[in-house]
Specification:
2 copies of one chain form a homodimer.
Chain A lengths: L4 H10 L7 H13 L2 H17 L1 E2 L6 E2 L5 H4 L4 E8 L2 H10 L4 E5 L17 H7 L6 E4 L5 H13 L6 E4 L15 H9 L5
Protein backbone atom coordinates (compact mmCIF):
# COMPACT_ATOMS: atom_id res chain seq x y z
CA UNK A 1 0.00 0.00 0.00
CA UNK A 2 1.18 3.48 -0.78
CA UNK A 3 -0.14 6.91 0.03
CA UNK A 4 -2.86 8.40 -2.17
CA UNK A 5 -1.13 10.12 -5.11
CA UNK A 6 -1.99 13.63 -4.01
CA UNK A 7 -0.37 12.97 -0.62
CA UNK A 8 2.76 11.58 -2.29
CA UNK A 9 2.90 14.73 -4.42
CA UNK A 10 2.66 16.89 -1.31
CA UNK A 11 5.43 14.92 0.44
CA UNK A 12 7.64 15.22 -2.65
CA UNK A 13 6.98 18.96 -2.80
CA UNK A 14 8.13 19.38 0.79
CA UNK A 15 11.29 17.43 -0.08
CA UNK A 16 12.24 20.28 -2.42
CA UNK A 17 12.88 22.45 0.65
CA UNK A 18 16.48 22.69 1.91
CA UNK A 19 17.47 19.96 4.38
CA UNK A 20 14.10 18.19 4.28
CA UNK A 21 14.31 14.39 3.98
CA UNK A 22 11.62 11.76 3.50
CA UNK A 23 10.59 11.51 7.17
CA UNK A 24 10.40 15.25 7.75
CA UNK A 25 8.47 15.80 4.52
CA UNK A 26 5.98 13.15 5.65
CA UNK A 27 5.54 14.87 9.02
CA UNK A 28 5.00 18.23 7.31
CA UNK A 29 2.42 16.74 4.93
CA UNK A 30 0.46 15.22 7.84
CA UNK A 31 0.58 18.57 9.61
CA UNK A 32 -1.08 20.25 6.61
CA UNK A 33 -4.08 17.94 7.08
CA UNK A 34 -4.34 19.08 10.71
CA UNK A 35 -4.29 22.82 9.96
CA UNK A 36 -7.41 24.94 10.06
CA UNK A 37 -9.09 25.77 6.77
CA UNK A 38 -8.04 29.44 6.92
CA UNK A 39 -4.43 28.52 7.71
CA UNK A 40 -4.22 26.35 4.61
CA UNK A 41 -5.91 29.07 2.56
CA UNK A 42 -3.31 31.62 3.73
CA UNK A 43 -0.48 29.15 3.07
CA UNK A 44 -1.68 28.56 -0.50
CA UNK A 45 -2.38 32.21 -1.20
CA UNK A 46 0.91 33.51 0.20
CA UNK A 47 2.93 30.86 -1.64
CA UNK A 48 1.21 31.59 -4.92
CA UNK A 49 1.47 35.37 -4.55
CA UNK A 50 5.03 35.34 -3.22
CA UNK A 51 6.18 33.24 -6.16
CA UNK A 52 4.44 35.35 -8.76
CA UNK A 53 4.83 38.89 -7.39
CA UNK A 54 8.19 39.00 -5.61
CA UNK A 55 11.21 40.00 -7.67
CA UNK A 56 14.58 41.71 -7.19
CA UNK A 57 14.46 45.50 -6.79
CA UNK A 58 15.54 47.08 -10.09
CA UNK A 59 18.08 49.24 -8.23
CA UNK A 60 19.62 47.16 -5.46
CA UNK A 61 18.40 43.59 -5.96
CA UNK A 62 16.52 43.43 -2.64
CA UNK A 63 13.29 41.39 -2.49
CA UNK A 64 10.23 43.45 -3.40
CA UNK A 65 6.75 43.24 -4.83
CA UNK A 66 7.20 46.63 -6.53
CA UNK A 67 9.71 47.85 -9.14
CA UNK A 68 11.91 49.40 -6.45
CA UNK A 69 12.16 48.10 -2.89
CA UNK A 70 11.03 49.90 0.27
CA UNK A 71 14.60 50.97 1.06
CA UNK A 72 15.38 52.42 -2.37
CA UNK A 73 12.01 54.22 -2.29
CA UNK A 74 12.74 55.72 1.13
CA UNK A 75 13.93 59.33 0.63
CA UNK A 76 15.35 59.42 4.17
CA UNK A 77 18.02 56.87 3.26
CA UNK A 78 21.57 58.09 2.72
CA UNK A 79 22.36 57.13 -0.89
CA UNK A 80 26.01 58.13 -0.51
CA UNK A 81 26.53 54.93 1.48
CA UNK A 82 26.12 51.53 -0.19
CA UNK A 83 26.32 48.31 1.82
CA UNK A 84 27.19 45.34 -0.40
CA UNK A 85 25.66 42.00 0.69
CA UNK A 86 25.67 38.48 -0.70
CA UNK A 87 21.96 37.70 -0.49
CA UNK A 88 18.77 39.71 -0.07
CA UNK A 89 18.15 38.08 3.31
CA UNK A 90 21.35 39.61 4.66
CA UNK A 91 19.62 42.99 4.35
CA UNK A 92 17.02 41.95 6.93
CA UNK A 93 19.77 40.96 9.36
CA UNK A 94 21.48 44.34 9.05
CA UNK A 95 18.18 46.24 9.17
CA UNK A 96 17.27 44.48 12.41
CA UNK A 97 20.44 45.83 14.00
CA UNK A 98 19.09 49.34 13.32
CA UNK A 99 22.55 50.91 12.92
CA UNK A 100 22.60 51.45 9.19
CA UNK A 101 20.79 54.16 7.26
CA UNK A 102 22.38 53.93 3.83
CA UNK A 103 21.26 51.83 0.86
CA UNK A 104 22.20 48.30 -0.23
CA UNK A 105 23.46 46.31 -3.16
CA UNK A 106 22.74 42.60 -3.42
CA UNK A 107 25.43 40.65 -5.27
CA UNK A 108 23.24 37.54 -5.40
CA UNK A 109 26.18 35.21 -4.78
CA UNK A 110 29.89 35.22 -4.05
CA UNK A 111 32.88 34.54 -6.25
CA UNK A 112 33.84 30.92 -5.67
CA UNK A 113 36.66 28.94 -7.21
CA UNK A 114 35.30 25.68 -5.81
CA UNK A 115 31.75 26.25 -7.10
CA UNK A 116 33.01 27.86 -10.33
CA UNK A 117 31.24 31.18 -9.71
CA UNK A 118 33.03 33.95 -11.60
CA UNK A 119 32.84 37.74 -11.06
CA UNK A 120 30.61 38.04 -14.13
CA UNK A 121 28.11 35.57 -12.62
CA UNK A 122 27.23 37.91 -9.75
CA UNK A 123 25.97 41.48 -9.78
CA UNK A 124 29.34 43.26 -9.73
CA UNK A 125 28.81 45.08 -13.04
CA UNK A 126 25.53 46.49 -11.68
CA UNK A 127 27.41 47.61 -8.56
CA UNK A 128 30.06 49.49 -10.55
CA UNK A 129 27.32 51.26 -12.50
CA UNK A 130 25.92 52.60 -9.23
CA UNK A 131 29.18 54.16 -8.09
CA UNK A 132 28.62 57.78 -9.12
CA UNK A 133 30.63 60.70 -7.67
CA UNK A 134 27.86 61.08 -5.04
CA UNK A 135 28.75 57.74 -3.46
CA UNK A 136 31.21 58.26 -0.61
CA UNK A 137 31.55 54.81 0.96
CA UNK A 138 31.06 51.21 0.01
CA UNK A 139 30.73 48.81 2.96
CA UNK A 140 31.57 45.25 1.94
CA UNK A 141 29.37 43.01 4.09
CA UNK A 142 29.93 39.71 2.32
CA UNK A 143 30.22 36.63 4.56
CA UNK A 144 33.32 36.08 6.73
CA UNK A 145 34.13 32.93 4.70
CA UNK A 146 36.69 32.13 2.00
CA UNK A 147 34.24 32.99 -0.79
CA UNK A 148 33.04 36.12 0.99
CA UNK A 149 36.60 37.34 1.57
CA UNK A 150 37.55 36.59 -2.03
CA UNK A 151 34.59 38.59 -3.27
CA UNK A 152 35.39 41.52 -0.96
CA UNK A 153 39.05 41.54 -2.03
CA UNK A 154 38.07 41.40 -5.71
CA UNK A 155 35.70 44.36 -5.40
CA UNK A 156 38.26 46.25 -3.31
CA UNK A 157 40.87 45.81 -6.04
CA UNK A 158 38.49 46.91 -8.80
CA UNK A 159 37.88 50.16 -6.93
CA UNK A 160 41.39 50.96 -5.71
CA UNK A 161 41.73 53.86 -8.14
CA UNK A 162 38.25 55.20 -7.42
CA UNK A 163 37.59 58.07 -5.02
CA UNK A 164 35.09 55.97 -3.07
CA UNK A 165 36.12 54.70 0.38
CA UNK A 166 35.82 50.91 0.58
CA UNK A 167 35.38 49.34 4.02
CA UNK A 168 34.78 45.84 5.34
CA UNK A 169 32.69 44.81 8.36
CA UNK A 170 34.85 44.13 11.43
CA UNK A 171 35.76 40.56 12.31
CA UNK A 172 36.10 39.42 15.90
CA UNK A 173 34.39 37.68 18.74
CA UNK A 174 30.62 37.42 18.45
CA UNK A 175 28.87 39.18 21.34
CA UNK A 176 27.35 37.00 24.05
CA UNK A 177 29.59 34.06 23.22
CA UNK A 178 32.35 32.51 25.26
CA UNK A 179 35.98 32.91 24.33
CA UNK A 180 36.72 29.20 24.48
CA UNK A 181 34.02 28.53 21.88
CA UNK A 182 35.60 30.89 19.36
CA UNK A 183 37.56 29.23 16.55
CA UNK A 184 41.21 29.98 15.94
CA UNK A 185 40.71 32.24 12.92
CA UNK A 186 38.14 34.35 14.75
CA UNK A 187 40.56 34.75 17.66
CA UNK A 188 43.38 35.79 15.31
CA UNK A 189 41.06 38.38 13.72
CA UNK A 190 39.92 39.56 17.14
CA UNK A 191 43.53 39.95 18.27
CA UNK A 192 44.54 41.80 15.09
CA UNK A 193 41.59 44.15 15.36
CA UNK A 194 42.00 44.87 19.07
CA UNK A 195 41.17 48.40 20.23
CA UNK A 196 42.29 50.63 23.09
CA UNK A 197 39.55 51.05 25.63
CA UNK B 1 12.62 47.46 6.72
CA UNK B 2 10.54 44.35 6.81
CA UNK B 3 9.70 41.73 4.26
CA UNK B 4 6.84 42.38 1.84
CA UNK B 5 3.62 41.24 3.55
CA UNK B 6 3.05 38.27 1.26
CA UNK B 7 6.52 36.97 2.10
CA UNK B 8 5.89 37.42 5.85
CA UNK B 9 2.66 35.44 5.42
CA UNK B 10 4.54 32.65 3.67
CA UNK B 11 7.20 32.54 6.42
CA UNK B 12 4.48 32.44 9.09
CA UNK B 13 2.71 29.63 7.24
CA UNK B 14 5.89 27.54 7.24
CA UNK B 15 6.19 28.17 10.98
CA UNK B 16 2.98 26.18 11.45
CA UNK B 17 4.90 23.02 10.51
CA UNK B 18 6.27 20.88 13.37
CA UNK B 19 9.71 21.91 14.59
CA UNK B 20 10.07 24.84 12.19
CA UNK B 21 11.40 28.05 13.77
CA UNK B 22 11.83 31.55 12.35
CA UNK B 23 15.16 30.92 10.60
CA UNK B 24 14.11 27.66 8.99
CA UNK B 25 10.78 29.12 7.85
CA UNK B 26 12.70 31.99 6.23
CA UNK B 27 14.99 29.55 4.41
CA UNK B 28 11.99 27.55 3.18
CA UNK B 29 10.23 30.71 1.94
CA UNK B 30 13.32 31.79 -0.02
CA UNK B 31 13.53 28.31 -1.51
CA UNK B 32 9.98 28.63 -2.84
CA UNK B 33 11.10 31.65 -4.88
CA UNK B 34 13.87 29.56 -6.41
CA UNK B 35 11.65 26.65 -7.47
CA UNK B 36 10.56 26.15 -11.06
CA UNK B 37 7.09 27.29 -12.05
CA UNK B 38 5.79 23.73 -12.42
CA UNK B 39 7.22 22.71 -9.03
CA UNK B 40 5.34 25.52 -7.30
CA UNK B 41 2.20 24.65 -9.26
CA UNK B 42 2.43 21.02 -8.07
CA UNK B 43 3.12 22.14 -4.50
CA UNK B 44 0.04 24.37 -4.49
CA UNK B 45 -2.19 21.84 -6.21
CA UNK B 46 -1.18 18.89 -4.02
CA UNK B 47 -1.54 20.91 -0.82
CA UNK B 48 -4.97 22.15 -1.82
CA UNK B 49 -6.18 18.74 -2.98
CA UNK B 50 -4.65 16.82 -0.08
CA UNK B 51 -6.34 19.11 2.42
CA UNK B 52 -9.72 18.97 0.74
CA UNK B 53 -9.92 15.36 -0.47
CA UNK B 54 -8.04 13.25 2.07
CA UNK B 55 -10.05 11.86 4.96
CA UNK B 56 -10.04 8.82 7.28
CA UNK B 57 -11.28 5.56 5.74
CA UNK B 58 -14.83 4.92 6.97
CA UNK B 59 -13.85 1.39 8.03
CA UNK B 60 -10.33 1.51 9.46
CA UNK B 61 -9.40 5.20 9.74
CA UNK B 62 -6.49 4.98 7.27
CA UNK B 63 -5.79 8.01 5.06
CA UNK B 64 -7.74 7.89 1.80
CA UNK B 65 -9.24 10.04 -0.92
CA UNK B 66 -12.17 7.61 -1.27
CA UNK B 67 -14.81 6.42 1.21
CA UNK B 68 -12.82 3.25 1.97
CA UNK B 69 -9.04 3.01 1.77
CA UNK B 70 -7.05 0.86 -0.69
CA UNK B 71 -6.47 -1.82 1.95
CA UNK B 72 -10.11 -2.16 3.00
CA UNK B 73 -11.08 -2.26 -0.70
CA UNK B 74 -8.55 -5.03 -1.42
CA UNK B 75 -10.43 -8.36 -1.50
CA UNK B 76 -7.14 -10.30 -1.14
CA UNK B 77 -6.65 -8.97 2.39
CA UNK B 78 -7.36 -11.31 5.31
CA UNK B 79 -10.16 -9.60 7.24
CA UNK B 80 -9.93 -12.12 10.09
CA UNK B 81 -6.75 -10.34 11.20
CA UNK B 82 -6.85 -6.74 12.47
CA UNK B 83 -3.67 -4.85 13.27
CA UNK B 84 -4.35 -1.96 15.66
CA UNK B 85 -2.11 1.10 15.20
CA UNK B 86 -1.88 4.52 16.79
CA UNK B 87 -1.67 6.68 13.68
CA UNK B 88 -2.42 6.23 9.96
CA UNK B 89 1.26 6.68 9.14
CA UNK B 90 2.13 3.56 11.15
CA UNK B 91 0.29 1.58 8.48
CA UNK B 92 2.83 2.66 5.86
CA UNK B 93 5.68 1.48 8.09
CA UNK B 94 4.12 -1.99 8.51
CA UNK B 95 3.16 -2.21 4.83
CA UNK B 96 6.75 -1.49 3.81
CA UNK B 97 7.89 -4.52 5.80
CA UNK B 98 5.69 -6.64 3.50
CA UNK B 99 4.96 -9.29 6.15
CA UNK B 100 1.36 -8.47 6.95
CA UNK B 101 -1.69 -9.26 4.85
CA UNK B 102 -4.55 -8.56 7.24
CA UNK B 103 -6.44 -5.30 7.70
CA UNK B 104 -5.87 -2.38 10.06
CA UNK B 105 -7.58 -0.24 12.64
CA UNK B 106 -6.30 3.29 13.37
CA UNK B 107 -6.95 4.41 16.95
CA UNK B 108 -5.93 7.98 16.11
CA UNK B 109 -4.14 8.46 19.41
CA UNK B 110 -3.17 6.62 22.57
CA UNK B 111 -4.62 6.67 26.06
CA UNK B 112 -2.49 9.10 28.06
CA UNK B 113 -2.81 10.09 31.68
CA UNK B 114 -0.29 12.92 31.24
CA UNK B 115 -2.01 14.39 28.17
CA UNK B 116 -5.48 13.64 29.53
CA UNK B 117 -6.47 11.40 26.63
CA UNK B 118 -9.18 8.98 27.75
CA UNK B 119 -10.30 5.71 26.11
CA UNK B 120 -13.39 7.47 24.75
CA UNK B 121 -11.21 10.07 22.99
CA UNK B 122 -9.67 7.50 20.66
CA UNK B 123 -11.31 5.04 18.26
CA UNK B 124 -11.73 2.10 20.67
CA UNK B 125 -15.53 1.98 20.36
CA UNK B 126 -15.17 1.72 16.57
CA UNK B 127 -12.67 -1.12 17.08
CA UNK B 128 -15.04 -3.12 19.31
CA UNK B 129 -17.77 -2.76 16.69
CA UNK B 130 -15.49 -4.41 14.14
CA UNK B 131 -14.84 -7.52 16.24
CA UNK B 132 -17.35 -9.92 14.72
CA UNK B 133 -17.09 -13.73 15.15
CA UNK B 134 -15.11 -13.78 11.85
CA UNK B 135 -12.21 -11.92 13.45
CA UNK B 136 -9.63 -14.39 14.77
CA UNK B 137 -6.75 -12.22 15.90
CA UNK B 138 -6.13 -8.64 16.98
CA UNK B 139 -2.50 -7.54 16.78
CA UNK B 140 -1.84 -4.57 19.05
CA UNK B 141 0.85 -2.52 17.32
CA UNK B 142 0.70 0.62 19.45
CA UNK B 143 4.03 2.30 20.23
CA UNK B 144 6.49 0.69 22.68
CA UNK B 145 6.04 3.66 25.02
CA UNK B 146 4.18 4.19 28.29
CA UNK B 147 1.07 5.49 26.50
CA UNK B 148 1.27 2.77 23.85
CA UNK B 149 1.58 0.03 26.47
CA UNK B 150 -1.28 1.51 28.50
CA UNK B 151 -3.49 1.54 25.43
CA UNK B 152 -2.57 -2.06 24.54
CA UNK B 153 -3.25 -3.27 28.10
CA UNK B 154 -6.58 -1.45 28.18
CA UNK B 155 -7.75 -3.01 24.92
CA UNK B 156 -6.43 -6.42 26.05
CA UNK B 157 -8.50 -6.19 29.24
CA UNK B 158 -11.65 -5.16 27.39
CA UNK B 159 -11.38 -8.26 25.23
CA UNK B 160 -10.32 -10.85 27.80
CA UNK B 161 -13.72 -12.58 27.71
CA UNK B 162 -13.95 -12.48 23.91
CA UNK B 163 -13.03 -15.42 21.69
CA UNK B 164 -10.59 -13.28 19.70
CA UNK B 165 -6.84 -13.85 20.20
CA UNK B 166 -5.10 -10.63 21.25
CA UNK B 167 -1.37 -10.34 20.53
CA UNK B 168 1.25 -7.60 20.90
CA UNK B 169 4.23 -6.91 18.61
CA UNK B 170 7.46 -8.35 20.04
CA UNK B 171 9.83 -6.06 21.90
CA UNK B 172 13.58 -6.54 21.72
CA UNK B 173 16.75 -5.35 20.08
CA UNK B 174 16.28 -3.43 16.85
CA UNK B 175 17.97 -5.19 13.92
CA UNK B 176 21.20 -3.69 12.65
CA UNK B 177 21.92 -1.89 15.90
CA UNK B 178 24.64 -2.50 18.42
CA UNK B 179 23.94 -4.04 21.79
CA UNK B 180 25.71 -1.31 23.71
CA UNK B 181 23.43 1.32 22.16
CA UNK B 182 20.28 -0.42 23.38
CA UNK B 183 18.61 1.13 26.42
CA UNK B 184 18.05 -0.81 29.63
CA UNK B 185 14.33 -1.42 29.13
CA UNK B 186 14.87 -2.75 25.62
CA UNK B 187 17.53 -5.15 26.94
CA UNK B 188 15.19 -6.35 29.71
CA UNK B 189 12.47 -6.98 27.10
CA UNK B 190 14.96 -8.72 24.80
CA UNK B 191 16.10 -10.96 27.67
CA UNK B 192 12.52 -11.80 28.72
CA UNK B 193 11.54 -12.63 25.17
CA UNK B 194 14.62 -14.73 24.37
CA UNK B 195 14.10 -17.73 22.11
CA UNK B 196 15.82 -21.07 21.61
CA UNK B 197 17.74 -21.19 18.36
Amino acid sequence: MEYPKVFEDLINSFRKLPGVGAKTAERYAYQILDLKEEQVALFLESMEKAYHTLRPCSVCGNLTDQDRCMICEDSKRDTSLICVVTKAKDIIAIEKSGTYHGVYHVLDGEISTTKGILPENIRIKELLERITPDVKELILATNPTVDGETTALYIGKLLQNHDVIVTRLAHGLPMGGHLDYADELTLIKAMEGRKKI
